[in-house]
Amino acid sequence: MDDMAKKSASAAPAAELAQLPSLDLDELVRIWKVRIGRKVPLHLPRYLLVRLLAYRLQAQASGNLDRSLRSQLEQFAPEKLAAHGAKTAAGVKLKPGSVLVREHQGDLHRVVVIDSGYQWSDRTYSSLSQVAFAITGTKWNGPRFFGFDQKSRHANGGDAR
User: How many Cα atoms within 13 Å fall on the side-chain side of residue 5?
Assistant: First the structure.
């Protein structure tokens, strides 16, 4: 492929990426279905949909990280890569985009794991315990409230997953 063909091939994804933040939700969903080939997960807030779509488009255009490259990156900055996911006190690793669902007093609550913590009810919290307090009005161990520790599994009569 000559230089001109390379430039035009990379310009199309760059232009598409640049317009993503300005598109409405229906257009983002359409692009997702066409480019990714699956339905959009229902729980995704718009800003995460834009980020995931941007990542997927870049990975399709340039290729994704292979295992050996990821392994090399982990050697240089393990704390940075570990930060791209929250870890509960029970040791369960939660990746951004994960959704925790909990019923409390007849209401279903969905909490989205984001890079900077947890999002619930259009607010961001740095810990699951803060989210649990916001939902219940009482102090809770967040991982226990969402079923991530052994005590809550036994109390619920089985696995909390």
Answer: 2
Q: 86 near 113, Cβ under 8 Å?
A: yes
Query: Could you write out the DSSP letters of every residue in the chain?
Result: --HHHHHHHHHHHHHHHHHGGGS-HHHHHHHHHHHH-SPPPTT--HHHHHHHHHHHHHHHHH-PPPHHHHHHHHHH-HHHHHTSSEE-TT--EE-TT-EEEEEETTEEEEEEEETTEEEETTEEESSHHHHHHHHHSS---HHHHTT-SHHHHHHTTS---
> What CA–CA distance (Å, rounded) separates 102 from 132?
10
Cα–Cα distance measured from residue 110 to residue 114, given in angstroms and rounded to the nearest whole number: 13
139 residue type, one letter: K
What digits encode the pLDDT tens for the residues 22-71?
999 899 989 888 888 888 877 778 888 888 888 888 877 777 767 777 67
How far is the C-alpha of 10 from the C-alpha of 110, rounded, in Å? 38
